[in-house]
Amino acid sequence: MATLINQANTTGLEYDSGQHDASSAYWTWAFGDSILFRAGAEEASNMWQKHPEANCEFWRFSISSQSWIKLDDTTIGKHSSRTYSVRCNDTSLGSPAVSYNGNDSYLFAFKVQTTRGESFRCNDRIRVYNVGTSNIYDSDVKGKYIYGRSLDYAYRYHLSSSGPTITLTDSWLTTAGLRGTKITTALKKRMISVKSAIAKT
Amino acid sequence: MIEELITQIDTQKIKDTLDNINIQIPSIAGDIFDTFASPRLSIVQLDYIGGEYEIAKFYITMNSNVEIALNSTYEFNVLNFCLDNDGDTIYAYDAQGQEVLGYYINRDALSGYNNSTYMRKSTGDIYIPPFRAMTGEFETIREQWFQTEKLLCYSEKLDGRMCFYITVNLELDYQIKEDLFVSGVE
Questions:
Q1: Residue of A73, A98, A94, A72 whose CA lies nearest to A85
Q2: pLDDT in tens, B127-180
Q3: Domain limits at B89?
Q4: What ipTM, to 2 d.p.?
Q5: Chain B contacts of A52, Cβ < 8 Å?
Q6: Largest Cα–Cα distance in chain B?
Q7: Min distance B155 CA to chain A CA atoms (Å)
Q8: How many domains does chain B contain in total?
């Protein structure tokens, strides 16, 4: 079991998308030790519209099986929300309905797709925490030669409208750029993926 | 298109009207008048004559069950409301608490590309979902508004008017007065 990161103190926050409607590209992706995601549905903007409903999904990419595993698939409606967490004790976005606290996955996918009503009345928000503040970083990877990603971001908010069939060789996921590089704190954003073990070849 | 439309709306006149009317709460309304959100201009009705249009109605959402409609000169037109236990009906009342007309509404028609009717007014007018193409001179206008994703529905009225209902969702930044809605009608 991985050590849960208590992010009640948000100094470790690497990225916060803010709350936005999920009207177009409703799949979000993130690498991370510690992640929070919240899907929400408001009421219709007027009485002539149907109240919104959204399909919410939570997936992890398994290191051991090298495949996507669905953790949750549910529908939320008017004035409701659903929160997912990854190795995180922070409940600032609500108490998690589903949590993943294992250490077989560091890449996750989240979906909020409006299935009824006005899409702009459904929304989502993701918070990705800085691996540099975690015990995992210090004990496992700091200063070691590992496989780091080529790009400096570990999250793609509202990347696409299809998933989780993301190509694992996409530029933001590939490890080619830093393969065998010594990872320092300055490269911590790239380190978040170090354990994803997607392309350690 | 939507930006141009919004520039033609005088929100101060809407606030002035809301400041100077008292509306009787209909006796069948239950508790839907107990709490209100910040009023929002949610929809405007555009009446097209040839290639020109005029704003014929302003629909102001008070909460998810209650709406006030103003006419083209920003005067009170009608109070619309729906009940939680009677979702297929929208009632229209005057300011004295008397029913003037009603609508049968099938909101599912907005999300299905089928032939079901979206709404029927007690006067006989039919309302069509925005994605359904029409014939004649107004199809280009329907298509343009549909592309903006702001078209709620349209209706060719029995009196000959072609009406388009545009979602604007304009916050009014306005606090309603305490006696906008008053009780007392049995």
A1: A98
A2: 999 999 988 889 999 999 999 989 999 999 998 899 999 999 999 999 999 999
A3: 2-182
A4: 0.91
A5: none
A6: 48
A7: 14
A8: 1
